[in-house]
Known about the structure:
By secondary structure, the protein is of the alpha+beta class.
Amino acid sequence: MARQDYIFTSESVSEGHPDKVCDRISDAVLDAFLTEEPEARVACETFATTNRVVIGGEVGLSDQTKLKDYMGRVEDIARACIKDIGYEQEKFHHATCEVTNLLHEQSAHIAQGVNASGNKDEGAGDQGIMFGYATTETAELMPAPIQYAHAILRRLAEVRKSGQEPVLRPDAKSQISLRYAGGKPVEVTSIVLSTQHSDASQTSADIRAIVEPYFYEVLPEGFITPNTEWWVNPTGTFVIGGPDGDAGLTGRKIIVDTYGGAAPHGGGAFSGKDPTKVDRSAAYVARYLAKNVVAAGMAERCTIQLSYAIGVAKPLSIYADTHDTGEVDPAAIERAIAQVIDLTPRGIRHHLGLNKPIYERTAAYGHFGRTPDADGGFSWERTDLVEALKKAV
């Protein structure tokens, strides 16, 4: 029997966090290549530090004559990302930081394992295990601590960029601890927020006075109580932030990107990877499947695991766990999944429409628990597989 009464904590980081700056640039580069060619191959990594951004990895287009032209656009893409995030600091400024582009053509040895040829179907871009998760804790079918940790930072970014709160700066981290009773979140026991600000004379109390109303706005009514502990900028001054304060790297916030530690993670990062990489696309479809299982009323909580081998099209395994909350046998869910969706890399991309420039928007505030966009963004958050699953079990 799962525990019913406990405290669980998740953290999030803002779009201005050094690692998220790097995720944003990597995904913006990916989107640029997918705009040119939906089947483009991209594995883009970004590193950022004081006054410097380094971009590396491998890319592939069917028309190699266009590759050089797109390579030349990478620096402008990086600067546009940094500008939109809001960095105009002396030691990290979108106009003056040094950008080094070390991207190169995709390895032919990797391509031969992934590409379709003859009677061979397109294979997975790597081996690995991928997890998806859903729970009835929130309307988005996400774990509540990570969903609220994202929501507050997204709201603070909105008021910063609009000019409503001009003292706020891009770099920030949040952490929410929720008390569960009877398996349901009922109360915030502690709030941690460290946010970059403009003036070294501003105290922790000054910053709390600015941000506190937004916590009440974002969190469910009654969740913040007189017993809630507040830790806002607990170390004091936080003026030097972003890559000038700490180096950043693509793919270092995988738990922030997924379920805040409330569910397993396969280990592979998402940003900068085209959807032939099952690290990304299979994690997305696993979330899609888990969410549809829960939306169908088959369980209050569901974890789906998929596994793949590089160059092999079909998944090696499908595993479902309903955490003792299920109305349907997990083995029946596994069989139903195999019937209703093609889980080959190409099948996933086709079903979810992943060969589109929809990835830059995923780089901050979580890849899951978002609203599907009209242009196909966050397609893995749809619940359009409910009826097919019900018929198949």
